[in-house]
Protein 1
Amino acid sequence: MNKRAALTVLAVMISAPAVAKTWVLTSAELAVDQGNWKISSDELKIQDSAFSIEQKVLHGGKQEGSKIIVIHSQSGLTITLSPTRGMNLLRVEGFGSRMGWDSPVKEVVNPAFINLESRNGVGWLEGFNEMMVRCGYEWTGHPVTADGQIYTLHGKAGNTPVSRLEVDVADAAPHEIRIRGLIKESTFKKADLQTLTELRYVPGSNSFSLHDVLTNHADYPHDYQIIYHSNFSTPILEEGARFLAPMSGISPFNDYAKAGLKTWQTYAGPTKGFDEMVFNISPLSDANHQTLAAVINKAGDKGAAIQFDTRQLPVLTLWKNTDTLKQGYVTGIEPGTSYAYPVTIEREQKRVKQLQPGASTAFDLTYTLLHSRDQVTGVRNRIEKIQGETKVDEITTPMAKE
Amino acid sequence: MNKRAALTVLAVMISAPAVAKTWVLTSAELAVDQGNWKISSDELKIQDSAFSIEQKVLHGGKQEGSKIIVIHSQSGLTITLSPTRGMNLLRVEGFGSRMGWDSPVKEVVNPAFINLESRNGVGWLEGFNEMMVRCGYEWTGHPVTADGQIYTLHGKAGNTPVSRLEVDVADAAPHEIRIRGLIKESTFKKADLQTLTELRYVPGSNSFSLHDVLTNHADYPHDYQIIYHSNFSTPILEEGARFLAPMSGISPFNDYAKAGLKTWQTYAGPTKGFDEMVFNISPLSDANHQTLAAVINKAGDKGAAIQFDTRQLPVLTLWKNTDTLKQGYVTGIEPGTSYAYPVTIEREQKRVKQLQPGASTAFDLTYTLLHSRDQVTGVRNRIEKIQGETKVDEITTPMAKE
Amino acid sequence: MNKRAALTVLAVMISAPAVAKTWVLTSAELAVDQGNWKISSDELKIQDSAFSIEQKVLHGGKQEGSKIIVIHSQSGLTITLSPTRGMNLLRVEGFGSRMGWDSPVKEVVNPAFINLESRNGVGWLEGFNEMMVRCGYEWTGHPVTADGQIYTLHGKAGNTPVSRLEVDVADAAPHEIRIRGLIKESTFKKADLQTLTELRYVPGSNSFSLHDVLTNHADYPHDYQIIYHSNFSTPILEEGARFLAPMSGISPFNDYAKAGLKTWQTYAGPTKGFDEMVFNISPLSDANHQTLAAVINKAGDKGAAIQFDTRQLPVLTLWKNTDTLKQGYVTGIEPGTSYAYPVTIEREQKRVKQLQPGASTAFDLTYTLLHSRDQVTGVRNRIEKIQGETKVDEITTPMAKE
């Protein structure tokens, strides 16, 4: 008898009380392991919305055994994420546009083939091609050797296979879809940080939300850091594309970025030799602590916006990597608890947060794919309103030297 | 046609001459690979004993692809071990008690997801949750950088997938079960140490034995070290639990453990801020070179004992990790050739042993789950008898500084 | 329904226009993943030649999940290579002889279980047992820490799973077989070197060719290095076996090899304590830039020869590892762009080559298993002809200190 087939039967369908159907695709605890799998609105007898949710197991090269989930909404977005790679979002497509970029890394690299400590702590670059990577939570930022160990680039969550994976479809219209994945950073004596990530999407919509809850399961307080490394390229990013966010101040990450400070609001086209410029931003928010950051195209009819809560994610990094297309022409809009400096600097400058034993903290972000002049104008107006009369302080000196 | 199903058929059942049936579950050499698999006393037409032996392939998180073997004896012990993790024993349950503990690491981590060199050589902690881990054989102990390389915490055997795995069931009552696994530490120019581990269990019994044979397959002498890192917690470990072992002397591993030297015989309950204290013990043995070490509960009606041969394993480490339950409230009783100091110190102090080309050496240990006052008293009496009139030398100074 | 079975159906058979049939066994891009698979000349209705091509998935130990391809020609060679290990050639057998050797590493180690940076950059040794490993292309040679990172022994290509794997069989006699594998060394910001390797074999023949094309897919020039680390042992290598190659000069790699300079032309039998001696050779070539290097047995009726182009591979390393059989009695004949010094030395001495953006470069080598006195004499004559009147300069001083 076939073992994998037998396991497949174990895939559990739980009917949550009167509100949603839930499928458990992976559970280390319950020994559930779903391989290739698909449901559709048709199968669920849903008539007012057309969508499918599919899990695929990938093969070949360094993506051997990696899994992806594809949420396909006929009139909305197609969202692709990877449970094997920390629930990272690979790409989001729809409305003639997309969120995401083209990295020279084409495969969905299985973390089994990555040594994060390699190349002096930047092994993470061997798998980096996502529209959004969670950089955290045990640490984040550029690599540094401290406390007798190497803190590797952007931490481990984004290279951690999911311990539990669940799919919800709400019974009632508009049939909201939720994908939950549990990412464990549990090491004896070191950490027991667990993040229950959740992606929420209403079929047909041009936006989706993340609701991630980080819990410190240990009996001691533990530091944490997180950067939501969100990356956009063509067709939004182009020469003359603009970056929009309400802010009290902006400063160059390092000396190289100084030269780009005056033009932080606009983007260059693909530019050989540009490499990358990074800027540290202090975001402003509205009365409800909500803020927005966006990249919009030159014509002002395409864009991508991220809404987040500055109590949860108080700082914002702008990454302009407008090098050539093949090198990965891309901009990162990165809400976080920290800037991208090494953890040692983030500690000195008091941006590293701490969770008490048993305590949880949530991170809520809403991503919107803007596909009309009106939508772009709407976001621009909201940002201008939050900015109000506050003048942007363009600080010429980097706040730290790596 | 299904490939895994086809392979399954290859699982080989060899009838050993008149004494036992043997199943080969894994063989790199013979291309045998059994996935989920089970036999039971019923299927074997055995009527005087009720047991089953099962192999399961695990999924989810970092245990993707890990295998476990569960020996279940209806009136005796349930022993769970992992071929993927060097035949380590995960837990042993029965008689209303257990051997093992609760690590914050819950998954049976596939070594493909562990970088032993990470965190400055303590990547081993990302998978540590076993009742018994073989720490060796190429090296063991705390990490150290020497000879231009890092000797990682507790070596590699415990994170090495088994190259050959066999299950025996004796034809004659009491139908002894043997599980053999071959662990290879073979690296061109560096080592060819191979350990044929064997677990022996008679269904219904409250004890089992290990018989491990380490062979140096190289043409040059090779150093080896081994610590049988055996770990116990509730319901045996508790405030007022006691550690018993015949010894000529005991000393603190480091300055921090000095404070615990006077109370080495008893355990604290779960204690926030305790972290760990380690003690080095020189065991005494009987005329047959056998000795015993045990942890017993406060009431003296539950315990776990390890019998071993001091010619094979001349030293004993006591690890008191009586921190909170969530941190992993646990004590280690660790017979070995070495203490837990880095290999550099163990070399200086002449505890590193050597195997000549082609030579083998065996390690025999018997673990007993004590579940009555009589059994505990029996062990206590044997230990007292070996101790005899010899006074325990409580040495206040650690024998080395790391 | 079984997922692997479903995937199997995806294996694509493409009929190339009128010249060959092509099977795609692996494609990360097309989501093709073939497990165990076989075709034979019988199934293809080929009558003038008897051969089979088989892919097997291996299991057990550290070879869990590794794939091998076996080309078996009834009257010719049996060639075994591993797509999981960078299309490395494991062994080539036939005509009562073989190319290859016996490493203490017996398994076809899945790179998921190897940390190339371990043991101070020589983790590569934990998987080394091949007849031919591609050492490159991002870097090669002995490990060194430079530019703030470790350049691990012999690079990463040989431990990279293939991203695309295709098998061709020519329609017309003599039905040449081609196995193509794409090896990607693609890391954001670091490299996008891709090598399309191709092995070409005519069934019945005693020789095969490699045609590898390395392309720099990045928009910036990139350094590359390659050593075709080709390894031979019994029954060719023995006491009195000879090394043959036309050369202008030879020098010891290091001080230890100085003692062996005068006897570079002959081999010792298995010799305890020999370890290894390495020599740097400047090959001479014919008017077409072709050269040959060979090892032949004492009797002069068995041998292995490699033909290569000195414009592509200008230098040659001779590795004499005539230690005991169990240690891996073996000689390496290693055409390359570089000697085996660390990349830092190779840079200083101007042997590191560079590829412009989008540029490709090819490497062509022909391996022949010599199995008669005539064949050996033929190779010897060709080598003597290329050598001509040129005297071999035996340089006593190593060209660099590591």
Protein 2
Amino acid sequence: MENCYSKHYNSFTYRSHTCGELSSAQVGEYVTICGWVQYLRLSKFLLLRDAYGVLQCTVSEEDIDFSNIPLESVVKVDGKVSLRPKNAINSEMSTGEIEVIIQRLEILSTAENLPFNLRNYQKPKEQLRMQHRYIDLRFPEMQSILRLRSQMLHRMRRFLVEQHGFVEVETPTLFCQTPGGAREFVVPTHHAGLFYSLVQSPQQFKQMLMSGGVDRYFQIARCYRDETTRPDRQPEFTQLDVEMSFTDLGGVLSMIESLLTHTFPKLMQEPPLKKITYKHALEHYGSDKPNVQYGLQFKNIKQLFPEKSRIPHFDAFAVPYPAELGKITAKNKDKIKEIAKKHKVKVILDHDIHKEFGSDFESNLKNIIGQQNSAIISMGDYENACLCLGEIRELIASLLRTRNLLKTEEHTEVLWVVDFPLFTKGEKGLETCHHPFTSPHPDDIHLLDSDPLKVRALAYDLVMNGNEIGGGSVRIHNARLQEKILSMLGMDAEKLRHFLNALRSGCPPHAGIALGIDRLVSIVFNTDSIRDVIAFPKTHEGKDPLSGAPSTISEQDKQYYHIRTC
Amino acid sequence: MENCYSKHYNSFTYRSHTCGELSSAQVGEYVTICGWVQYLRLSKFLLLRDAYGVLQCTVSEEDIDFSNIPLESVVKVDGKVSLRPKNAINSEMSTGEIEVIIQRLEILSTAENLPFNLRNYQKPKEQLRMQHRYIDLRFPEMQSILRLRSQMLHRMRRFLVEQHGFVEVETPTLFCQTPGGAREFVVPTHHAGLFYSLVQSPQQFKQMLMSGGVDRYFQIARCYRDETTRPDRQPEFTQLDVEMSFTDLGGVLSMIESLLTHTFPKLMQEPPLKKITYKHALEHYGSDKPNVQYGLQFKNIKQLFPEKSRIPHFDAFAVPYPAELGKITAKNKDKIKEIAKKHKVKVILDHDIHKEFGSDFESNLKNIIGQQNSAIISMGDYENACLCLGEIRELIASLLRTRNLLKTEEHTEVLWVVDFPLFTKGEKGLETCHHPFTSPHPDDIHLLDSDPLKVRALAYDLVMNGNEIGGGSVRIHNARLQEKILSMLGMDAEKLRHFLNALRSGCPPHAGIALGIDRLVSIVFNTDSIRDVIAFPKTHEGKDPLSGAPSTISEQDKQYYHIRTC
């Protein structure tokens, strides 16, 4: 995402240029430069760094001595831009043709006892980086990610506000608890026994905005979930939240496709994006967020098993893979066994197939999977057989990748998964697959009472290289249908009285979506973790190594909020 | 703030036009329109409303009967645009020349039992409006304010990102407690006895970003303060938060002036804005956020009192006002007496001056305040005499305004107040006037030990029509000076260890500001309360009439967070 504006990076400051912008075009000019001391050499050369680049400053006279300035101190240099001697030109630096001859040097801030150096080849451990984030942020990659993130969000806003008339509305984060969904942080108040909850998303608000006539809403919204046990999650995160009235599933998909193409013109395939059904994803990749950058698509091999041998809901799938991978090692065999056990599915590895089922079976299988391929088979209940083989597929892909045998698409693969089921069977009855405000598919409404698990939802997930980066749905805009769904889910409608009233007051049909910004940035800029795209992240346990938060509070505070700890 | 983009308000929807955009240019076209039923007349005319306008739809044939559709139901109309008969043209409606002849009408959502009507002339009480905000938002003023607010923030972002290379960085809201400052909400965690605090501003983070080399930062940030006892405050609010490295007081002032001129080109005076010192504001208006739209400037009349009669720190001021106002009524006299009592200051009303001080005094006073003016005098300790008369000045102004005797500037008056004191004397010792990170004025640093109350701060407030809409300062970037100030304020430096380390690691000089967005929008769009510019506001007690938040939580939740209520 290139920098498309002509900006004044030096307006309102006392520097004349950044460290990155000088070139031979400025030779002869007197400049004022500020930055961090990156490197000192021979008491003569000082490499000055800021967010925009690195610049060589040179002492010409003997009266400026900077040999005692600690690295990472901040200085201000007045000087004259000169061409470097030919043999000193550094073509790897954007400012490598020139240097600034120092006329005046002022130390603005002296660095003391840094916990680590700013050298890429000895990058400190993540814990130490997070503890001293104010230093870690000076690494060029961190600078670059934060700037690209800001650019990306600005491009999204321009698309929505300027091109399509969306209104950014800020909705509250201190609210009441939403039944169902993720665990929400609670916030005690001065009113004894009464708590706010921190919203897990603006879902209720954006739907109430639709009822309120704000027909094209978006927000880059802070959301909160107390789910710190899951890796690569943050207790607070950012989502692009969009909702539209008078639209349908196709409208939202097409809006997001245009948005992504506008935001990442180089990255994206031409819209429309590929759409696959949940059923297709399950039966071919064993996942509702399949990575389709590589093949390894399942084959259904149920027909190879005689009908009488089958259990109820029996199904069988094979994942084919290049035979060059060879025999699965004992260690990986154990991993596969564990996956099979978790899903209560029988799994047969390639070299056991002959022993288990004989030559006829093997040759029939080869006809299906291709003569040059090996395969692993999973057999059992339909859904589990798929999900189990999905995990095995990812393991096989990682083994192939290590051996350089995996054929992968170069470009980012973005697709929609649609036609999810509305409900899933939970321990205590029906549970929602997305959230309780998701509309059933109109063709399946007649099944709500007779066969609810067969009802599809008007829901859609956006999947990028095997990661779910967003999801949404057409919402229920009819209060009676909403009450029915809540009751089927065993949820207390009283807690959503205000919301149901909003549907009852003349609420247009509407649909929307939310994209996880942290994850999206992390995938697009290819970082190891979402923590790398967040200025001040917390650990996966929700701790802040920088400030030590969370921490104890005073007895007075507890009294004020009418709480005791136990 | 006009709408400056050519937008597609109908993209990704199944309507062809909004209710506001049709005119005689579309006559003959077939259109699809969606909206709320605003009004029905003679079973023949249906006024359809959406966020963009109102449109008349007309039945031509007898087979469409909409007489039973409740008002505020949502419908979809397919029809043909026609010119109205000449005698039916309504020049007050933007769509008043045309009507849509209905060919098909679909009810999308039926409104039931609305708690109030959408009629401006019988606008419901605020409590009811907040309780059913999803209906209240349909009033054209609310639609307009939310849209203008979104436009305003977008203009600010464009100025900062596109023209001046600022980076929007999202900083955490779950953090540790900041010593000093407002009361912060606490958030219990699953770790027994450990709490986050909700940040009252991104202050620490933005300063750490400066140390981290993000030299031009901004954020439209959600902030939290548990100060619900103060009227017209919200527990969560939005501020435009900006910070820059390598700048000074003048740099920040000039940046904000450019930003405001860019955002409100019609509203703003030409920069630079007027700058007055805190001392000047106190001595002439009795306030640190003076309303200078009208005159009524104080005159110092200390010289009229013989030296021997004076108490220590004695001072005397008069506020002149047009004699046409006449005698102050008994009720207002009581109000003035109360103000005087609160400030422990002696106040003399105009018609008591002669009785109290005699004719010579009176004629000397007239020479100072102007022969045609009356005056009220306050006498006492310098600061209290000013502050007391400041409150009286506002009362007098309101009395003059009621009688149409107040000469007021038509345009919005925006000015800077500078040269605040760094410290004020609190009950337990020195207290900070802004916050503990504010830099002392370099000319006054030598007074820190000897006469700290005389030290000025490099702080500035932005005042609009008598409201403080923002404030900021040059920050302390030297760890030792910061430690000294914390210690003078009796604050625990250990709680700011991470912050002090950031200053110690090579931190550039920096300065910044925060503008209160809710208040700014409220003043610019002239609403009664900041609640009118917030989509889903809370009452001044921090309650949400819509959802009933805050509310009780379950015993399981309390157990999970290791808290008990008491």
